[in-house]
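ENTRY TYPE: paired fold submission
RECORD: A
CONTENT: sequence, then structure tokens
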Amino acid sequence: MVLLPKINVPKEVKDFRLITLVHSFAKIISKLLANRLSAFLLQLVCENQSAFIKGRFILDNYKYVQRAAALFVSRRSPKR
């Protein structure tokens, strides 16, 4: 824990801001795991899931839906 002064000349305890590094260990571990996992992410996540993955774009899903809709319309049998 570290006390940072809020004002130039602190005189009382309320004039300090408490800074703690308790959560930094969890952040470091999660960053390490995320960096290691990023190398395998493209193999783990299906191609149609594209949001928040480096090198993929969320608009690609719109293209997939548009193509699927066009395919369904072209294969629809005529009504009798």
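RECORD: B
CONTENT: sequence, then structure tokens
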Amino acid sequence: MEAQHLGSILANVRRHWGVEYVVLTGGEPMIQEEIPQLTEGLKKLGLHITIETSGTQYAPVKCDLMSISPKLANSTPVEREGGRWAKQHDRLRLQKSTLKKLMKDYEYQLKFVVQAPEDMDEIRKLVEDLRARKNRVVLMPEGTDPAVLHERSLWLIEICKRENYRFTPRLHIDLYGNRRGI
């Protein structure tokens, strides 16, 4: 991201007076070389910054909340392109040293996308390995179909209540359906 491009992004943000919060997401924002400069500029505008990341990359950024979504085994793309990326995905999806550094350096939440109750074994183990506080663990049902999300939400909410985790719905799916750009 060139300085001129960064300047145009910040100028565009300034046009939205009254905005207090910014979420950097999409793909993996932490791999963008200029993310430290972008967050510095956003912070100078007085904005609350959340970064949504898989936790596989570290960068010295300014942010108020690091929303870390480690990829679980359920995310391995075994069916896409004949499983072409499955081994690489499994090798790279969890970078525990990076996760620990992000958790140490920033206010954080760990957000897990849950497909089935069996995912909880992996989540519990990772939460324990990372020594994460339960009140910073957020569980979200996986899916893009409102009916599937509703069904998964029912049992996932019960798990959250029982294990003292937080729950978040996929509200954008309920409101707008499975559309890009929302």
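NOTES ON RECORD B: The chain has a mean pLDDT of 88. Helices lie at 3-14, 35-44, 86-92, 96-105, 119-130, 146-163, 171-176.
STATUS: closed
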